[in-house]
Specification:
Helices cover 23% and strands 34% of the residues. By secondary structure, the protein is of the alpha+beta class.
């Protein structure tokens, strides 16, 4: 979770990762993938990473943090496609060597997300459809709970989760 701002009336996060993503997660797959030298600030010995823009789709997001014990926030987001010029602008004000997802969190505003900002590392997993996303969210929440992690499902109602 690197940065975000309004775009056409909705708040769009920039999710970036300093490592790599599977090319099938990127628009165009391998054809939409490049590798650029990593900044020495992050990787002093050099190397490249897989860079591209994440394809549109529904994702389950989660973040783990410590606050008197292990806690997890989980929710649903939409990875959306923005015009190439907007993506390039966002890359220029963050880290242009890293892969990027334009994410809109469902039911969780910017202020709500930042109010519990204990970790900027967010994990995402694509789901093939809405029903699968809700099932995956429920399964992940149950797994975390079984591991003794205090779970908060964010922006999803119980009715949506159990539908």
């Amino acid at each position: 979770m690197r940065y975000g701002e309004d775009y056409n009336g909705q708040f769009v996060w920039v999710f970036e990762i300093s490592g790599a993503v599977p090319p099938e997660h990127l628009i165009g797959g391998y054809a939409g993938t490049v590798s650029e030298r990593q900044p020495p600030m992050y990787f002093r010995l050099g190397g490249g990473t897989v860079k591209g823009i994440s394809k549109p789709g529904v994702v389950v997001w989660s973040r783990i943090f410590v606050d008197g014990g292990l806690k997890a926030d989980l929710g649903i987001a939409d990875s959306i496609e923005l015009p190439r010029e907007e993506s390039e602008r966002r890359w220029k004000i963050t880290t242009p060597q890293w892969p990027m997802m334009h994410a809109v969190t469902r039911g969780v505003s910017r202020d709500h997300m930042m109010a519990r900002h204990k970790a900027n590392h967010i994990q995402v997993a694509y789901a093939p459809d809405e029903t699968s996303a809700m099932k995956a969210l429920a399964a992940k929440a149950e797994a975390f709970d079984e591991l003794g992690i205090d779970v908060s499902i964010c922006g999803v109602t119980e009715a949506e989760l159990c539908a």
